[in-house]
Specification:
By secondary structure, this protein is mostly beta strands. The chain is 8% helix and 40% strand. The two termini are 23 Å apart.
Length: 84
């Protein structure tokens, strides 16, 4: 389920929206540590790198954002529906 209640300043360069490949054994999480997210240059690149057998799914994320524990996190905006 995507996170819908995230507010950010698009003019800020601290946190941005990106296309990404997300390692997600179960697609139920709303946030992911940076080691599970590979930022991609475009939607097409994210879709092209998807591999369900390796639990790599394309999505749009917001981040990176620093957690209170000191980790960088990305927040799911949407899973991408790619054409094969």
């Amino acid at each position: 389920m995507p996170v819908r209640n995230i507010f950010y300043d698009p003019a800020s360069q601290l946190v941005g929206e990106h296309f990404a490949l997300i390692y997600a054994p179960q697609r139920k999480r709303k946030r992911f540590p940076e080691n599970c997210v590979q930022v991609m240059a475009s939607e097409e690149a994210a879709c092209g790198g998807a591999d369900a057998a390796k639990n790599l799914f394309p999505g749009r994320v917001l981040g990176p954002s620093r957690s209170s524990e000191g980790f960088n996190l990305y927040y799911l905006v949407d899973w991408l529906e790619c054409r094969t």
